[in-house]
Amino acid sequence: MTALLARLLGRMPVGWLQLTHNYGRLASAVAGVAFANVLVFVQLGIMGSMNTATRDTYKMLNADIILSAKDANTISEGSNVPRQWMFRAMSDPGVADATPLYMGSVQWKQNGNDTKLQLLAMDPVKTGFFSPQVRHKIVSLTLPDVAMIDLKTRQIDQQVLAGIRPHSPLTTEIMGHTISFADTFTGGVGFSADGYVLTSDQTFLRLFPQRQSGAPNHILLKLAPGHDAAAVIDRLRADLPSDLRIRTIAQAADDDVVFSTTKRPTGIIFGFGVLMGVLVGIVIVYQVLSTDVADHLKEYATFKAMGYAPGFFLGIIFEEAMILALLGFVPGSLVSWGVHSLLRTATGLPINMDGTVVFLVFLGTLAACAVSGAVATRRLNAADPADLF
Amino acid sequence: MYRKPGTPDPIVVSHLNHWYGSGETRIQVIFDATLSIAPGSLTILKGPSGSGKTTLLTLIGCLRDVMDGSLRLLGTELNGASEPAQVALRRRIGFIFQAHNLHASLTAQQNVRMGLEVHGTHGNRDRYDDAAAHALRMVGLDHRLHYLPGNLSGGQKQRVAVARALVGNPEIVMADEPTAALDQESGRVVVEILKALGRERGTTTLMVTHDDRIMGLADRVLTMEDGRIVSDTAPR
């Protein structure tokens, strides 16, 4: 290893030799870097789970364009959209099909549990607007008071959910109505509810007598083959009233994520958590490296007295920083992966470490180590060698 | 002592003053020092503790910025010299420290090698290891090449430090009480090596010591008291 580094660096790998000289000190430095990594990963995981959950809602729909009210900042909020605009939109040659989407949340009380369910309701005849994973099961929703429930619904006995079949439905009472859960699908709700329920528009209107079929939450559109979404959206914006938000589904999901992370208290708190994690991580890494510089100050002063230039010391510190970043990152990411699994099991939230985040955190670790090292050598560069002995 | 005619003195000090501290606590430690050291000579700087000899040595060795007066080292004025100029000069000096100052994580050979790598490593990788081993052989440590300083005796460590200072063929060797931490036998060995190698290569040597056993080896002995050079004698 020493010979390899010597060849790589074109000089004596002093940093490597220093680090491996004292394994106890190396272990504590690596533990420090690893801890900083865990801190950042866990905060990013929690924040990422919120964004994933937000996007997952949109993935349950299969449409190109969504028409929403101006104040619909997230998919489950905002005013209703008059259904007349759906018919108006369908007159555009670029629009192949359309359906109203009704949404609402209900409290499901059973066996002492109070579960909040997020209802998504569409016309079950228009199966194409449902995501491919549920499309073939939609036919069961054409019966009145029949619904499909999310397998990941929190607080519900998993065996009960797994046993639900069209021929053995789970019949229960929700808000004074008898509802039969005749099938299941895999959803996974974030912070706003405990689980999803899919129903027909008719069942939805029975559960919510105050809602009207002419006033859905959103209107979903599908493009005709060969038509460009941007062009159709431009035409619709010109044709429909200006108090409508007309966006692609992807754009709506992006806007929702931005709103949730920057305007919602939960999003801001999670963002702040990430910021705190990064700052505390940088402080830890800086402490590790500045302690190391302080420990070797006398040796560096000797090198300085021998005629080594400031760049040489920066090189040693960078060498140490890179080694510590690498050695700390491996256990740090493994422990984070474990912590994520624990949190995922405990909360049912989609807490994951995707490749991009892992790569970015690794780059951040390298950068934090390098900058901390550069700052830590300032004292050495400013002093006369004779003052450091 | 042989002296090539026309060779300028490598060390020329005139009216050098130096202070420690600042404001009210500022005290002067070097008063109007003026001296010139001939090439190839062995000069000893002696005097009681706190007389300023180590300060003067570190000023001449480019380890401290000159405040007042003139100090010409190898033809370069150190008063106001830039950092790169000082770095370049330090490479032409071999400095031996009182407490050997070896790097604890490097072996004897690696420590000596650092005295060569300071001149750059391009294409010299293998030659440097041989040169470092050769330098350690000259100080009688060829059987300790791969020992860490922690596993060497005090005298052996100081000999490694001597090898490190001399391996780059410096024009000037400066030593700050190289025998202070050593017993009589080890101290004598270190100075004899220094003297022999110095004579062999014609290097100028400046040594701070109060070790009376060594005085007889010097071409010239300067005595300092309270920051002033009070006597300048040639024992031989």
Automatic annotation (TrEMBL), chain A:
Chain ranges passing through the membrane: 26-46, 268-289, 309-335, 356-376
Record's keyword terms, sorted: Cell membrane, Membrane, Transmembrane, Transmembrane helix, Transport
Domain of life of the native organism: Bacteria
Chief localization: membrane
Subcellular location: Cell membrane
Matching InterPro entries: ABC-4/HrtB_transporter, ABC3_permease_C, DevC
Boundaries of every ABC3 transporter permease C-terminal domain copy: 273-381
PANTHER family: ABC TRANSPORTER, MEMBRANE PROTEIN, HEMIN TRANSPORT SYSTEM PERMEASE PROTEIN HRTB-RELATED
Protein name stated in the entry: FtsX-like permease family protein
Source organism of the structure: Sedimentitalea xiamensis
Classification of source organism: Bacteria, Pseudomonadati, Pseudomonadota, Alphaproteobacteria, Rhodobacterales
UniProtKB/TrEMBL annotation, chain B:
Top-rank lineage group of the source organism: Bacteria
InterPro entries: AAA+_ATPase (IPR003593), ABC_heterocyst_DevA (IPR014324), ABC_transporter-like_ATP-bd (IPR003439), ABC_transporter-like_CS (IPR017871), ABC_transpr_LolD-like (IPR015854), MacB-like_ATP-bd (IPR017911), P-loop_NTPase (IPR027417)
Keyword RNA-binding on entry: no
Domain named ABC transporter: residues: 13-236
Molecular function via GO: ATP binding
KW Lipid biosynthesis (keyword) present: no
Pfam families assigned: ABC_tran (PF00005)
Keywords: ATP-binding, Nucleotide-binding, Transport
Protein name: ATP-binding cassette domain-containing protein
Organism listed in the record: Sedimentitalea xiamensis
